[in-house]
Every structure is written in structure tokens, then in C-alpha cells.
Specification:
The protein is mainly alpha-helical. It has 13 helices and no strands. Helix 4 packs antiparallel against helix 8, helix 6 crosses helix 8 and helix 7 runs antiparallel to helix 13. It is globular, with a radius of gyration of 22 Å.
Length: 325
């Protein structure tokens, strides 16, 4: 009797000799694509944790987002240059689109998100942002009259019920800084952030086809970085950034790299390998990782309300994305 390892090797050789079909490109890309999508979602979700840690040093939202974008600007500018090599120059219409998308998708949405995180927990923020696919569907219905299917409507109802459950708990408990009214204001700002980013997704389709995803992201985020720098220069004294705690600087570097530029590349590479639908499904790990990091790193409470709300949001988006493919 041959040892198991030899028998297995012999069987594999016979299969090849017999003409067994090799693994397809999709099968070969599945595992790396899932790993990239998972790591990208976790890295994205770490942004809220870093922002909450930075707020403990007394920094304001305008300075904090400026530092993040200042450190991210060289990375995104390099990305735009790399993706644009050998491509036609942008037209005036292209530049107007890039500026508009950069303002809505990366500047305004990021600033509103940072501002809202000063009032609500990181886990609640992630649940609100996770409603983004439902907002894209709403814009599609509003602008193009694309009617949602019944399962999509059901998924939306379940997801929003989960957010309202957590919101009601935070509103009544008043655990956030400033009490229930602060929680309502923070949730409103983060929801507006999700609306702003949904508008970017709706209008970016044409420019993705014209410029390519990587080039568009690099250009739009570079524009957003310039908006954030201009906002800081207009609203605050320029030496404010020099007086922040060293920890804020290191957290901003980490935010700009590990939680901004790196996950953008990871998710795009994942989409190339496994497609946008599966990448979106894998991204459901985002809220869970945010909640876990919030509990472990920030000491945020993990209550039955948060658990139930998270389960409803993820279940609703799961139903929504599967029926929307």
C-alpha cells in the first residue's frame, strides 16, 4: 500500500494526463479576490476608529480632514499619473466632471462624515454609511425612473429598521457627547455624507467608462484633497496644524495610507478578480469589523440593541444586493 501523499500525487498526475480541465481564470482569482475585498473592507472601516482616537486629542474636524488629505495627496496624484500614462488628455468637460465628482464623492462626503463622528459612535456611523446602495437605488428612481423590485424594497425596509433601532437607542440613552440631540445631529451629518457619496456613484458611471476607474479615482481624490486644503486655509490660521498633538499627525498618516489609499487599491483589484457584486457582498464584513474595533480599541459598548440593528442592516443589504444583480 502506497503512502497517502504518493497516492494523491499519482492521482493528480493521472488526472492531468487524462486531460482533466485546468482551473479557470475565475477560479484562480477567487481566493486572492476575496482576500483583497475582505482586507479592503476592514481597512476602510478602520477610518472611523482613527478619527475617534484623534478627537480625543481635542483636534477639530477641519484640521483633521486637512491632515488626512495632505498626506494622501501625493499617493492619489501618483495614482492619477500612473493610470493616465499614454491616455488622451482630459477635455474641459472631463475636468468639470472630475471636479464635481471629487467635491461630492470625496470632499463633501468625507467632511460630513468626520463632523458626524464627533457626536456618534463609530459602529453607528458605519451602519448609516452601509445604507449607501439603497440611496443609489433611490437616486436611480428619482433621476431615471428605475423602479425597484419588491425584494429590493423589502431589503431597504429591513436595513433602515436596523439603523432606526440603533438610532433610537442612542437617542434615548444619550450616551454620546452632548446627549440625544447630539446623536441626532451626528446621525444627520453622516447620513448626508452617505447621500453625497451616493450622488458620486450615480454620476460617475459615464466618467469611469471614459477615463477608467483608477484614473478617475486618482483625479477625483486629488481634487478633494485640494478642496480640503483650501477649506482649512480659509477657515483656520495656517499654524493651527503645527500645534496639534504628535499623536494626531501619526493617526492622520495612518488614516491617509492604511485606511484611504491602500483600501481603494485593494477593492479595485478585488473587483477586477471577482466582480463588483461579490466584492460588495464581501464588504459586509465592514460593519462587523468596525463594531469589533470600536469595542476593543475605543471601549464602545456592545449592546443587544447594536447587535440587533447590525443584524438587520446586514440582512437587508444582503437581500438588496442579491436581488439587484
Amino acid at each position: 500500500m502506497w503512502p497517502p501523499a504518493i497516492r494523491a500525487a499519482t492521482a493528480r498526475r493521472r488526472g492531468i494526463e487524462a486531460g482533466a480541465p485546468p482551473l479557470s481564470a475565475a477560479q484562480k482569482n477567487l481566493a486572492p479576490g476575496l482576500v483583497l475585498a475582505t482586507l479592503g473592507a476592514i481597512a476602510f472601516s478602520g477610518k472611523a476608529i482613527i478619527v475617534k482616537l484623534a478627537y480625543r486629542h481635542g483636534v477639530d474636524a477641519v484640521t483633521l480632514i486637512m491632515l488626512r488629505m495632505l498626506f494622501a495627496l501625493p499617493i492619489f496624484a501618483l495614482m492619477a499619473w500612473w493610470a493616465g500614462r499614454g491616455k488622451p488628455a482630459l477635455t474641459g468637460r472631463d475636468w468639470l466632471g472630475v471636479i464635481g465628482l471629487g467635491f461630492s464623492g470625496y470632499y463633501l462626503s468625507s467632511f460630513l462624515d468626520f463632523a458626524g463622528l464627533a457626536y456618534i459612535s463609530a459602529s453607528f456611523e458605519r451602519l448609516i454609511l452601509y445604507l449607501n446602495p439603497t440611496l443609489v437605488l433611490f437616486f436611480g428612481w428619482l433621476l431615471y425612473r428605475r423602479r425597484p423590485s419588491r425584494p429590493q424594497v423589502l431589503g431597504m425596509i429591513v436595513s433602515y429598521a436596523g439603523v432606526l433601532l440603533v438610532f433610537g437607542h442612542e437617542l434615548l440613552a444619550g450616551d454620546t457627547q452632548g446627549g440625544g440631540l447630539a446623536a441626532a445631529w451626528g446621525a444627520f451629518l453622516v447620513f448626508l455624507s452617505a447621500v453625497s457619496y451616493a450622488g458620486y456613484l450615480v454620476y460617475s458611471g459615464e466618467f469611469v467608462r471614459r477615463l477608467g476607474a483608477l484614473r478617475l479615482v486618482g483625479l477625483a481624490t486629488s481634487v478633494a484633497c485640494l478642496f480640503c486644503l483650501a477649506q482649512y486655509a480659509l477657515l483656520l490660521p495656517l499654524d493651527t496644524a503645527l500645534r496639534v498633538a504628535p499623536g494626531v499627525l501619526w493617526l492622520s498618516v495612518l488614516n491617509a495610507t492604511l485606511c484611504t489609499a491602500v483600501p481603494v487599491l485593494m477593492v479595485m483589484m478585488a473587483i477586477e478578480r471577482i466582480g463588483p457584486a461579490m466584492a460588495a457582498q464581501t464588504g459586509m464584513v465592514g460593519p462587523l469589523s468596525t463594531i469589533l474595533m470600536g469595542v476593543v480599541i475605543l471601549g464602545e459598548p456592545f449592546t443587544a440593541w447594536v447587535a440587533a440593528g447590525t443584524a438587520l442592516v446586514i440582512a437587508g443589504i444582503f437581500v438588496f444586493t442579491r436581488t439587484g444583480r
